[in-house]
Write a sequence for this structure.
């Protein structure tokens, strides 16, 4: 700031605005390799990111500071009390984990959002810097993953319905009615209606109470183990989405000669495949929904949002 084309260049005293003292202190402590302060609340994280953009600091200089700050927070307590609590809402972690490249935290919070919240997922920014947020594409993909959970669960739960509707036996109608009645009694059916006001995690918990035994006089085709079918559907949906992967997101946004082949190969891995090569192994759906296409790189997005307010300072 005291050199180059900044207005303050070559001044011995500089007045800075729109910053907080604790945040700028942490930046100085990290840049000068002095033991930094970790005792700051969540809103201060946005102040740190804002200062990075305002003064063109490399935001990843705080990557390891943020990782240590994250480990010192009672994050598990925030997750356990995310409803109606005075504790921070876990969605406050979406932007910080993304901008400071905290892959474990980002994967955890995006998975948590997909399974625990109803309606459209939106991040929460507790600061006054409302220009700092995730790219819209990331929120779009996160909500798409959330919707896919419902589709996968419905597909697996509906499989007995499909078989019974195609059957020729005289007991199919009673068996089908009994199966759907049992799903309704446990509170998870009809899924499309229930999912409008119930989070996926709660639906999966309700399915654990499912119990149905077909009539003893039913044919062998109708006397399936419906509890086992529902347990399998519940288990697959519970493990389906690990969250968004920062490595997959970053790799998909890099401009390389493989851009076109990446596009066509996007659907090559299958649903049950495990994806390795990232900092955290994860499921194929995590890879699929982490694909962001050839968008701007994260650092470009970050700087374009945080610098647009301060371009006039260098004139």
């Amino acid at each position: 700031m005291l050199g180059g084309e900044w207005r303050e260049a070559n001044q011995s005293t500089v007045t800075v605005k729109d910053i907080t003292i604790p945040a700028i202190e942490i930046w100085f402590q990290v840049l000068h390799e002095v033991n930094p302060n970790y005792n700051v609340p969540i809103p201060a994280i946005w102040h740190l990111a804002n200062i990075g953009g305002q003064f063109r600091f490399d935001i990843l200089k705080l990557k390891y500071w943020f990782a240590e700050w994250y480990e010192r927070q009672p994050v598990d307590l925030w997750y356990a009390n995310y409803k109606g609590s005075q504790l921070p809402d876990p969605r406050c972690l979406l932007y910080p984990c993304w901008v400071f490249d905290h892959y474990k935290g980002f994967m955890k919070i995006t998975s948590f959002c997909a399974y625990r919240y109803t309606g459209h997922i939106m991040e929460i920014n507790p600061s006054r810097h409302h220009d700092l947020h995730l790219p819209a594409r990331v929120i779009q993909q996160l909500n798409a993953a959330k919707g896919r959970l419902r589709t996968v669960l419905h597909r697996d739960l509906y499989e007995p319905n499909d078989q019974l509707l195609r059957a020729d036996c005289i007991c199919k109608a009673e068996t089908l009615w009994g199966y759907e009645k049992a799903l309704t009694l446990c509170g998870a059916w009809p899924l499309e209606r229930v999912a409008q006001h119930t989070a996926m995690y709660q639906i999966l918990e309700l399915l654990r109470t499912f119990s149905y035994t077909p009539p003893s006089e039913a044919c062998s085709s109708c006397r399936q183990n419906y509890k086992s079918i529902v347990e399998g559907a519940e288990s697959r949906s519970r493990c389906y989405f690990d969250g968004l992967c920062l490595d997959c997101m970053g790799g998909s946004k890099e401009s390389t000669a493989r851009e076109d082949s990446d596009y066509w190969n996007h659907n090559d891995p299958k649903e049950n495949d495990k994806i390795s090569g990232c900092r955290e192994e994860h499921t194929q759906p995590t890879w699929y929904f982490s694909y962001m296409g050839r968008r701007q790189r994260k650092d470009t997005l970050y700087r374009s949002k945080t610098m647009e307010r301060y371009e006039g300072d260098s004139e």
Observations:
- Residues 252-257, 294-298 have pLDDT under 50 and may be disordered.
